[in-house]
Design a protein that fits this description.
Two copies of one chain form a homodimer. Chain A is built from ten helices and 14 strands. The longest helix of chain A is centred in the last third of the chain and has 18 residues. In chain A, 54% of the residues are buried. Chains A and B meet through helix 1, helix 3, helix 4 and helix 7 of A and helix 1, helix 3, helix 4 and helix 7 of B.
Chain lengths: 361, 361
Amino acid sequence: MENRIHNFNPGPSALPLPVLEKIKDSFLNYQSSGMSITEISHRSKPFDDIINDAKLRTIRLLNLGDNYDILFVQGGASLQFTMVPMNFLPDAAVADYVNTGTWSTKAIKEAAILGKTTHVAASSEDKNFSYIPKNLDLSADAAYVHITSNNTIKGTQWHEFPNTNGVPIIADMSSDILSRPLDIQPFGLIYAGAQKNLGPAGVCMVIIRKDMLEKIPANLPSMLKYTTFSEKNSLYNTPPCFSIYAVQLVLEWIEETMGGLENIHEINVKKANLLYDLMSDDGFYRGTAQPDSRSLMNVTFRLPSEDLEKQFVAEAMEKGLGGLKGHRSVGGCRASIYNACDMKSVEALVDFMKFFEQKNG
Amino acid sequence: MENRIHNFNPGPSALPLPVLEKIKDSFLNYQSSGMSITEISHRSKPFDDIINDAKLRTIRLLNLGDNYDILFVQGGASLQFTMVPMNFLPDAAVADYVNTGTWSTKAIKEAAILGKTTHVAASSEDKNFSYIPKNLDLSADAAYVHITSNNTIKGTQWHEFPNTNGVPIIADMSSDILSRPLDIQPFGLIYAGAQKNLGPAGVCMVIIRKDMLEKIPANLPSMLKYTTFSEKNSLYNTPPCFSIYAVQLVLEWIEETMGGLENIHEINVKKANLLYDLMSDDGFYRGTAQPDSRSLMNVTFRLPSEDLEKQFVAEAMEKGLGGLKGHRSVGGCRASIYNACDMKSVEALVDFMKFFEQKNG
C-alpha cells in the first residue's frame, strides 16, 4: 500500500486521492490516445474536451449565468496583482483595496508599481490582521473594490461580502474558491491560484463578468490582457495542460463525488469546528483569528511556547500529520484543511492535539 | 501493455518513456514523502532538491560558467516576448530583431505594444520564411539582437549564430534548446517554453547572463522582472512544481541516459537525415525549407496535392504515427522530432513514407 500522510500543507496541498489515482492510471496513455496527458496537443479534441468540461463544471458549481467567462492564466495570483490594475484601473481613476494581510498588501504594492492610484478602504493591520474589517471607507467612484476572501497566513476569511453599491468586487479567492456556495452577483472578477482548492500549482482560474472585458484598453501586452484569454478559450498560446487537466478532475470530484458546494461547505464547517472547539483564549491552543473572522480553510493557532510549537509540529510529522508549521512570517501552527483534506485527516489531527495537550498541558 | 503511438506532435510533444514511467510510479508517494509530487510544498527540501538539480544539470549540459543563472518562469515564450523588451529595452534605445517567421513576428509585435523601438535587422519573409538570413543589418548600438533559433512552423533553424560584435543575443530557443551543444558566449538571455525539448507545458526556462540583471529597471511588476526570479531561486511565488519536476527528470535523462548534448545532437542529425533523404525539389515529398536552413527538429514537407496530404496524415494516424499535420497557418505536413522522439519512431515514419509514396506516387 501507498503509505500516504495526512496532508495539512497550505499550498500546494492535498489533492483528492481518487483524482491522483485517475491521473496515475492513465498517465502513459490518456483515453486511448496512445499518449500521456503531458504529450497531447493543446489543439486536439481530447484537450478541448478537458478545458470545456472544466469551464462547464465551474459554471454549474457556482451557478453562473452566461454573462461570466472562465479563463486559465499562468503566473499565479501574484501575476493577477499586476493584471487587475493594468486591465481595469485607468491612470486617472482610483481603486479601493481592503488590506487583510500579506496578499492584500502585495496586491496594493503591485498596483503602485504600475503608477496606479489605490485607496485603502479598510485595514486590519492595527490588530495584526486578526480580523476582517466590517466598515469600509469606499471611494465615491472606484473602478473596483479589491478584497482577499481568505487569508492563508492570518487564518481569516470574509463570511459576508461588503455592499459596494454596484462597484464590481474583484476578489483573490486563491485559498477558498469552491469551498462554499457563492452569490456571484457583486463580483466583476475572481481569481484563484489552483494549488489550494482546485488542483496542482501552475494555473490560475479567472472568473470574469463579460462586461468587464469591454473596459480593457486595447494596447496591453497580449499575455497580460484578459481579452486574449477570453477570445481564444485560454488557448492563445500553449496553456499549462497538465494543471488544467488536474483541475478538471478536481471539479468533477467536487461535483460528482462530493455533491457540490452546499455539501462541501457543510463538511468544511464540520472540519473547522472540530479544530476550533479545541481552542480558547486562555487554553493550551489559542486561535489567532478573532472568532467571527475565523477561516474554514486555514486554522491558525499558538501553543504556550515556541518550543512546544516546534515539538508539536515535529511529533505530528512523526505520526504522519504533515504541514502544520505556521507561515514563516508569523510563526505558530496552522492546519490547512481545504476541500481535499478529508474528515479522517482532521479527526486524526484532533486526536493528536488532545494527546499532545494531555502530555504537555 | 500500453499501446503508445509514435508521437510527432509539434508541442506539447513526446516525452521520454522512462521519464513518464518514473512520474507514474511515484505519483501517489514521491520519495517516501507520503504525498504526490503535486501535493508537496514548494518550500520543502524535496522541492528544493528538484529545482536545484534541474539548474545544475542545465549548467553542466550547456557547460555554463557561474556568470549564468537558470530561472523558471510561467507564461511560455509568449510572455517572454513582453518581458524581454520590458526588462532590457529602454524607451530611448533600439533592439534588433531578425524575423524568421510567426514567432519572431509576434516577438516584434509585443515590443511595439510596449511602445519600444525595434529594428528588423533581417527578414526571410520575401521567400515565405523558408530560410535563415545570412546578412544582418545591425544597428550601431542595439540593446540586444533577438533571434528565434528554430522555427517550428516553417521548419528552419539557425546552424551558425550571427556575430553581433558583443551586443548580447537574446534567443527564443523553445523548440531546439538542449538539442545540440551550444557556445553560450554571445548570448545574454535564452528562453524556452518547456513543451518541446524540456518537458510538459507550463514552464519556461530562462538562461540569463548575470550582467544582464544589472540593466533591469527597478520599478517593474514583480512577476515580470527577471531579478525577482533570480533573487528568489524562482520561488518568489508558487512555481509550476509539476512541470519543473518533469523538466528535472528530462534533464536527468539527457545527461545520464542519452549521454549529453554531443550524443543527442548526433542522434538528432541522423533522425533528420533519414527524413530529408526522402525529399527532393521535384519528388513526391518536397521539403519546404531551403536545405542549408533545414531544422533538425521540425521537418516540414509537402505532397503533390492537399488531398494526398490529408490522406497521408490520416493513414499515418491509423498506423500509429501521430501529429504529422502541418501548422494550421501553412498547411502541408510536419514531423516534429525533438530529443524525446526516438530513432524507432523515425524509422517507422520512413517506412510508412516509402510505402505511401509507392502506393500513391
